[in-house]
Amino acid sequence: MATSTLLTLSAAEQAQLQQLVHKGAAPARLLYRACILQFSHQGHEAPAIAALLVVSRATVDNVRRRYREQGLPEKPRSGQPRKVTPAVEAAIPSLACTNAPDGAAR
Description:
Layout: H1 11-23, H2 28-41, H3 46-53, H4 57-70, H5 86-96
């Protein structure tokens, strides 16, 4: 089990997190991370943060660990690669605007 140690955020990082949370326009996943880091900086323990934000203790520990390893700008999630290339996307409107083939109404 991970030990819960206090995080120390720089003034710039605190301002960045504060702005992110107050805007509220970011994805929920990112807002939860920001809140976890803010509460950790304020000295709250992991179980208290987990209960307050209704997340698991593992989530709190993982966010703290990732912050220590990578800092604030985390790596983007890999996700599945795109199936449609930009060339295919560009061809779709031109194909849709052509006349219907013989024997077809559309």
